[in-house]
Structures are given as structure tokens and as C-alpha cells.
Design brief:
mainly alpha; 63% helix; rod-shaped
């Protein structure tokens, strides 16, 4: 009876060892970085990192664009207000031109007679030139 129990116990231990050996090989293939699920997880992890970087860059670009758009909108609103003010001020201008108010005529300034700025000089009598 002890011999049969020892044989069964040995057979069970050998069966468990073979089972663990097969399971270990399957687990190694499962976690293989090139073919198995481990490789798929590594690829997906790299893609998630790339997507995070792209998303951060897109968010920064969108924030910059939003700031620029806000600034341009404010400028457009200011220009719209100025144009509305100018249009309103044009309503005050009469449709027909009225007589222009004559500006007082300026009186000419009277200067005392001054010596001429340029004068000819007579040449010597030996040359025979006259002035």
C-alpha cells in the first residue's frame, strides 16, 4: 500500500512539473515583446505617449489661436464703435453746403524801404565798361 501511494505521489509530482513547464513556456511566449501581448502593450504604450505629446502641442496651439482671435475680435469691436461714432457724427453735417464764412483778410505787413539786396559795381574806367 505504501508502494502504491509513493508511485501515485511521484506520478502526481511529475505531472505537476510537466504542467508547470508547459505553462511557463506559454507564459514566456505570451509576454514576448515582439510577437505576444507584451509587444502589443509596448506598442500601445508608445502610441499613447505620442498621442499625449500631440495633444499637448494641439492644446498650446489652440490656446495661442484663441488669444489671437480674442485680440482681433476686440480690435474689430473697437473699430466698429469708431465707425458708428463717425457715422453718427455725419448725421450732424447739413446736406446742402452753406455759405462759407469768409476769413478776415490779412493786412500786408508794411516794411520800411530797405537798401537793395544786390547792387552792381562799376568797373574801373580803364576797361571801358559802363554800368
Amino acid at each position: 500500500m505504501d508502494l502504491i501511494a509513493d508511485i501515485l505521489l511521484t506520478a502526481g509530482a511529475i505531472g505537476a512539473g510537466v504542467y508547470c513547464f508547459v505553462l511557463g513556456r506559454r507564459l514566456n511566449r505570451f509576454n514576448d515583446l515582439e510577437k505576444g501581448v507584451g509587444g502589443a502593450v509596448a506598442v500601445l504604450s508608445a502610441q499613447v505617449d505620442d498621442l499625449n505629446r500631440t495633444l499637448n502641442a494641439a492644446q498650446q496651439t489652440a490656446a495661442t489661436s484663441a488669444a489671437t482671435l480674442t485680440e482681433l475680435t476686440k480690435r474689430a469691436e473697437d473699430m466698429s464703435r469708431q465707425l458708428e461714432f463717425q457715422m453718427a457724427s455725419l448725421h450732424d453735417v447739413p446736406a446742402t453746403p452753406e455759405q462759407k464764412i469768409a476769413a478776415p483778410e490779412a493786412t500786408p505787413i508794411q516794411h520800411a524801404p530797405a537798401a537793395p539786396m544786390f547792387a552792381r559795381r562799376a568797373h574801373s574806367a580803364t576797361t571801358g565798361d559802363t554800368v
